[in-house]
Amino acid sequence: MKKIFLAFLVSGQIMYGQTPMHKDSVKSNQLEDIVVTANRVQTHKSEVPVAISKLSLKTINETKAISTYELLNKTPGVLMVNLGNEQHSMAIRQPMTTNAYYLYLEDGLPIRPMGVFNHNALLEINQFNFQSIEVVKGPVSSLYGPEAVGGAVNLISLEPSLQPQLKVGFQADQWGYRRFQVAGGTTIGKVGFHVAGLSSSQRNSWMTFSDYNKDNINARIDYNISNKIKLYGTFFYGEYYSDMTGTVNEADFYNRTYKSTTDFTYRKSNALRSKISFEGKWNNNSNTSFTVFTRNNKLGQNPSYGIRWTQGITTAKGEINSNNFKSYGLVAQHNQKFEFLSSSIVIGGLFDYSPVDYNAYQIDLLANLNPGGQTVNNYQILAVRPDIKLSDYEADIYNKATFAQLSLKPLQNVIITLGGRYDNMSLDYINNVDKSKGDKVYDQFTFKAGANYNPFTFAGFYTNYSQGFSPPALTSIFRAKPGTGGMNPKPAEFYYNLESAKFNNYEAGGWVSLLDKKLQFDYSLYYMEGKNELLNIRQPDNSTDYQSAGKTLHKGIEFSLNYAVCSQFKIRVGGTTAQHIFVDFKISDKPSDPVKNLNGFEMPSAPKWTGNSEVSYYPEWLPNFRASLEWQMVSSWYQDQINTVKYQGYNIFNSRVGYQWRGFEFFVNAMNVTDKLYAYNVTKGNTASSPATYTAASPSTFVFGLQYSLFLNKKPH
């Protein structure tokens, strides 16, 4: 695929160019107040009773992100955790977690079907294809369904340009990273098209055994049948392969010995998504959309996180797994406005049929220990054991949903929003490990109610109550419990009784806009109760035991301030303070365990403070030059569930500069400019002797890039 892509790059296809760096018009500023994710229709932010943030095309273009976390972490209340080579976990109104509490959308459509959550879903994404990114914080299950608990991330793609345009680029760093990218599009008569692709690779980085390749292509074609009716289709195909370095031990981390303990672990993905959408705008008050979609994903792994080793032992176990699914579905939606109370309603439904197969089997490993025998220097494969099945199932998943949302304006400055959704996920399964067949159903009605009060032109307030839920992922249900199955004396036991996690969220917030919109401040306060939250208990050998927990509590304050000091300086300050607490959660019945009940304990990997702030400079004496300094702050967190050991957190600084000359843009991104030693996450088991594992962050990294934008037949302003 790479040869085809590079030929496409050289051929010079045509696409969007960039706007000037710092000539923001009033109109473009107003457009930043328009969001679509919160209500499924274009709406002013001041009219939706949720915490929603939007990353604009200007921000995306100036960031020149290698990985999506560089963009999303600019959003207050969001901490996207970099796991290397675009792999990631997330923390939005939750601790840093890989659990299925986030919904990742592409143009409003979930990237994965319900029940097949993958915390790495965004590694497939083409960063060169974003128009904007919207992040809704808190449960939005009443509109988008399960897994939209901590929040929803909606990646909004570029549309065909009206005139022929081209954008090509290259960027690289000193650690062996390279990326080529190209995008092009135009409109001819009633038909518009847009193509975007990238090819990236990593070789011989600061961390041993961390190479990867990624090749993506997006295509879109629009057919404007009339001024009321439009058809458009999109296509995405991506290939990804990465060495999986995993974590390092404490001594290696502090000695900056960035050495992987394996040279055989990997993650590979092939993803295809396509859809055809019909949009009918019958008049100013009525429009309908209908989308037919397909997905085809193949994910294979020899995961570093799947290695199970008991301290001091010279053998270990790993696994090789594959998780494949196809999807065939449709979603329909109608929006209607009424004169009565200036009301509007959104109604719709979803059907998604997704056959899934999953297989995981054991590999036997030799653990070569460091002096003292407390940590591993490296692992070696002794035997591949497809005869020892850790998991092996097939399932046909049927997701059905109906949703409705009503907004009305009973008073001049008051907007009431009510919404509800019913989801039904049923699956027919064959478990080839215990030779069982059956079916399961997870269904839930979720509700939300909110109000906006905008008494002034410069300030407004909102409040809401919303529900969220997330059924257990199939990979959790059909995973043999630790100590059962395989070579263990006990036959395989499974998590058939796991329940859906349910959440009740109470929230209030507001906005203030002063100094002719030069200063804008947004804030939100939330209090979210969780019940049956799916949590994992880390065992001494690093295996995982799942539980539907009793109760948890998540509460916090999110805030952002944007201040255009003058035409040359802009300041952005954003952050959150939060607590994530076990309310009723029992982890052990063993008399030998010092802690059996975690009631009142803080959840692990849950920093109380996170923040991302930035100062940007656009000098008038050097037009088309930009410079920025960004500060990322993450406070300390407990490494274990029993709250005995903390990691101190980190403060790092990133700098970005760029200069446009005619159609060329030259840029340099300096990441971690002070060469801070820090880790994105640090975890350990609950026993005193459990070693801590560090997800090491990179040393200072300098990304150099050149981008060329061509405007063909562009009319003067």
UniProtKB/TrEMBL annotation:
It comes from the Bacteria. The keyword Transmembrane helix does not apply. Keywords: Cell outer membrane, Ion transport, Iron, Iron transport, Membrane, Receptor, TonB box, Transmembrane, Transmembrane beta strand, Transport. GO terms for biological process: iron ion transport. The keyword Membrane applies. It is found in: Cell outer membrane. Gene3D superfamilies: TonB-dependent receptor, beta-barrel domain, TonB-dependent receptor, plug domain. Pfam families: Plug, TonB_dep_Rec_b-barrel. Residues 223-673 form the TonB-dependent receptor-like beta-barrel domain. It is a multi-pass membrane protein. Residues 45-152 form the TonB-dependent receptor plug domain. One of its GO terms (cellular component) is cell outer membrane. SUPFAM superfamilies: Porins. InterPro entries: Beta-barrel_TonB, Beta-barrel_TonB_sf, Plug_dom, Plug_dom_sf, TonB-dep_rcpt-like. PANTHER family: FERRICHROME IRON RECEPTOR-RELATED, TONB-DEPENDENT OUTER MEMBRANE RECEPTOR. Belongs to the TonB-dependent receptor family. This is Outer membrane receptor proteins, mostly Fe transport.
